[in-house]
Amino acid sequence: MLRRFAFLFALAFLFVASPVFAGSEDKDCLQCHGTKVQKVGGAKQTPPFVELAKFRSSVHGGNGCVSCHSDLDGAQHPGGTAAKPVTCGTCHEKPEASFNASIHGTARKAGNSGAAGCVECHGSHEIVPFASSSSPVNRANIGATCGTCHADVQKDFQDSIHGQAIAKGFQDAPTCTDCHGDHRIESLKHASSVKMAEQVCIRCHASQRMNAKFNLPANRVSTYLGSYHGLAGRMGDQQAANCASCHGFHKILPSSDPRSTIHPDNLAKTCQKCHPGTTENFALGKIHSDGSDISGPGDKINKWVKSGYLLLIFATIGGMLFHNLLILYRKAMAARRNPERVVVRMKPLDRVQHALLAASFIYLVISGFALKFPDSWLTYLVGSSEGFRRMGHRTSAIVMMALSVAHVFYALGTRDGRQFVKDMFPDRKDLLDVLRNVRHLLHPRSPRPKFGRFGYAEKAEYWAVVWGTFIMGGTGLMLWFKVFATQHMPRWVVDVALTVHLYEAILASLAILVWHFYFVIFDPDVYPLNWALLDGKVTRHYHHDEHPLEKPNYIPGFEESEESEEIEAEQVPPKDE
Fold first, then answer.
1. Structure pTM?
2. Going by C-beta distance under 8 Å and a sequence separation of 6 or more, which residues neighbour residue 460?
3. What are 344's strand-pairing partners?
């Protein structure tokens, strides 16, 4: 039994290690390529050698020769047919597409056959997984692999703080591919300041975990982006200094190293690359400073000046703001107490509906956008708590939907409501009024159209609110109860609902800001506010100018004067209207 087992083991070993036991497709190939030197016609030749044992243990060990060398399948080789270069993209389509866009790929397409390809980095017949310690693209070996073509760069990198960390076994330390990419390798020689900072260096140096692990300052990225160099780079200046401009590219050394470009003895020379005539005194300026590191008398003076100016700004601008708010308040109160405000435009129930709609809409906008833009000031308006924001947003949504239902009963079940809807309903005159008003605004000599209780602007806004409430309410409920929604409809419907909810909110918010707020706040005839939203009243002259075709509803007890009778006479619509 033992002899039989030993025989089977030896047979299996010979099958793996000997060309004789290779696959039928490969046996002929290995007769030449399975030995290092052969005699052909009395002369020694050295065809490409394939060590079968290593090939079988590689990631392609289960493939035959013609799997990669497909051009030799059935060809007379080596009788006049030379093997063509292998195309890895047959199996590795995406990596090859990335490689073709890399600096190596573009160089090869330009005719530079010496540029690195798949084989130069991964090997040919002995490719092993990149996690293997023997792989040339393993993190510990990638520097040496790149160094076969970039020897000077590799030497600088080995001396750098990054190369030393890799040599010590720190897997988090960056190597060639972390900065330049793996398949889509790109040159960073002419990279913009923003790309170097935000897409290369920031990936490690903005990481709180990395900074804590390697005891690095946590503010290096934020202070650079806030400096003149960083701000200019973010504005598109391609010449602004970036991280590599001062720290170097491959031979990056700590400031304590005398060879470092940011060592105190070398700072002036580094700055002179962009600022000719730089002295050591100029180079003493701090790039990475957020004002918290006070290490000398100059820093103390700078902090005192900053504090003094902040106090001066607060006192001066705060005083100006308080002064002008008092003026605005006095004028607003005077406008509200105007004795000419005797025409009632909004009844108490109308004002209640408007107030609830305005309050719920504003809170929905703030709380909704606080989720989309969590770093904005909107988040602090809703307490900076997601739970509180979510509860407030849904409560406001319930208020708005309940108000919508109540408004339907008001519009159908009351005389005022039915008249309101009737007056709000668009007609042919509204379309003509749009054309006439545009003509009037472009050519002031042309007559301005006359409006009734509601003009085309108010009608368009009302029906936009009806449409928006229906859309926002429907999509909002789907997002609120998305588990239930996905039980009865495809998941993509919820995704579409989210998109509609967001962009309908943007549309509605901008419409209120640009359209509604102009007519009730910024219009010079009503600025700083149309007080009708509180007491429903407007002046006789405002009503006459804006709604001449509507018979005015004066407040109880108002005695009509001759002037008011003249105004009413002017409000009789012409025959063509």
1. 0.67
2. none
3. 537
Q: Is the peptide bond before 129 cis (omega within 30 degrees of 0)?
A: no
Answer yes or no: are the C-beta atoms of 489 and 473 closer than 8 Å: no
Rounded Cα distance, 275 and 262, in Å: 15
Burial 260-287 (b: 16+ CB within 10 A, else e): bbbbeebbbebbeeeeeebeeeebeeee
CB 70 within 8 A of CB 25: no
* Integer CA distances (angstroms), 572 to 451, 452, 459, 566, in order: 11, 10, 21, 11
d(CA 200, CA 243): 10
**Residues 439-480 pLDDT 10s:** 999 998 999 999 999 999 999 999 999 999 999 999 999 999
The H or E element containing residue 323 is helix 297-336
- Asked if 573 and 550 count as a contact pair (C-beta separation under 8 A), the reply is no
Q: What pLDDT, in 10s, does the model give residues 23-37?
A: 556 777 877 887 776
Cα 280 → chain centroid: 41
Phi-psi region of 194 (alpha: psi -120 to 50; beta: other; left: phi over 0): alpha
Instruction: Answer whether the bond into residue 78 is a cis peptide, omega within 30°.
Output: yes
Find, among 182, 183, 200, the residue nearest to 191 by Cα: 200
Q: Distance between CA 395 and CA 403 in Å, rounded?
A: 12
End-to-end CA distance of the chain: 115
Distance CA 482, CA 486 (A): 6
